[in-house]
Amino acid sequence: xxxxxxxxxxxxxxxxxxxxxxxxxxxxxxxxxxxxxxxxxxxxxxxxxxxxxxxxxxxxxxxxxxxxxxxxxxxxxxxxxxxxxxxxxxxxxxxxxxxxxxxxxxxxxxxxxxxxxxxxxxxxxxxxxxxxxxxxxxxxxxxxxxxxxxxxxxxxxxxxxxxxxxxxxxxxxxxxxxxxxxxxxxxxxxxxxxxxxxxxxxxxxxxxxxxxxxxxxxxxxxxxxxxxxxxxxxxxxxxxxxxxxxxxxxxxxxxxxxxxxxxxxxxxxxxxxxxxxxxxxxxxxxxxxxxxxxxxxxxxxxxxxxxxxxxxxxxxxxxxxxxxxxxxxxxxxxxxxxxxxxxxxxxxxxxxxxxxxxxxxxxxxxxxxxxxxxxxxxxxxxxxxxxxxxxxxxxxxxxxxxxxxxxxxxxxxxxxxxxxxxxxxxxxxxxxxxx
Length: 435
Description:
Blueprint: H1 12-23, E1 32-33, H2 35-45, H3 49-67, E2 73-82, E3 90-91, E4 100-101, E5 108-121, H4 125-191, H5 197-232, E6 241-242, H6 259-277, E7 285-296, E8 307-317, H7 325-391, H8 397-431
Parallel strand pairs: 1-6
Antiparallel strand pairs: 2-5, 3-4, 5-7, 7-8
Helix pairs in contact: 2-4, 3-4, 4-5, 4-6, 4-8, 6-7, 7-8
């Protein structure tokens, strides 16, 4: 079974570390998972993997059967019949001369023979059929590889959903800790009569809202983990650490390495073989044959006795003219080849359009991340100022929480854009067939 090519551009340390984590799984309470590990498990456990060996075994049996075309065939034939009338021979002579009566042919006849046929020359039909079967197997195996490769995109969806939800959960936890510290400060001020109790209640309400967001994201993350676990047939849970992939793209030059693109080439080669195979219809066929057995009558149909039968010989057939049917069939294959080429060019064109969007997304997200970092720095400064103002009674808790939420949103935007950038790079590699 051919395995799908491993993502060459993902940092190899990720793979080594992921495999190392598997070794330590029994002694560690918490495992580490990386995207490359998920790809490997998908290749090992997905049910479609077994289809490759089945296709190979099926093709091997077909080739064996085709090789039997070179061996002689044996047929045992028997028949028994009765007829109401048979040919008689009677010669009338002048009066006084004895009459001549011909042999009497029986009305019941029996025959049992062994017929042997051996192909001496079949016009290269079997040779072409074996080549055609190899092309069929190659296409079937590549279709399996293509389907498995397409599943990587599904793995990506689940894996990056886990990463995004985890980043947001961590951010909400950090914010909750920040609010918890602020709440203790405000409660102290409330006890001293420096602030109204409403300010503390607003902080508590915001913390409850954060708990709700954390719970919702936790369940979303758990759902993604369970779906990923089912897809790769590997036990996963929410306690595992899911590593963020490290992707380096030295260039964004378009190069179509998709398996589906290769399949079109094999299909065109197969059609070219089938076109050449049409030529065999002009070739003569030569057989040797033999017949051995007993019959009543035998080859001497005038004999009424059971007699042995034996005959050997050779037969040739040749159809040099079929009213241009072969030429028309070749033209059909030429047209089909052009259709496949058009489909291949369409696939490539659509892929180029898709990759252009990927390249644009990569450029856009890279620029957004720079702006996000500036925004986060500003929001953190604003929140710190608001915190001091709240402590001094210049603003209310509502104003402070507004600044906190703005800081949260800016940090969430930064983390989401970071993960989206990595995903955009992986999607680009996936689309061009280098994942």
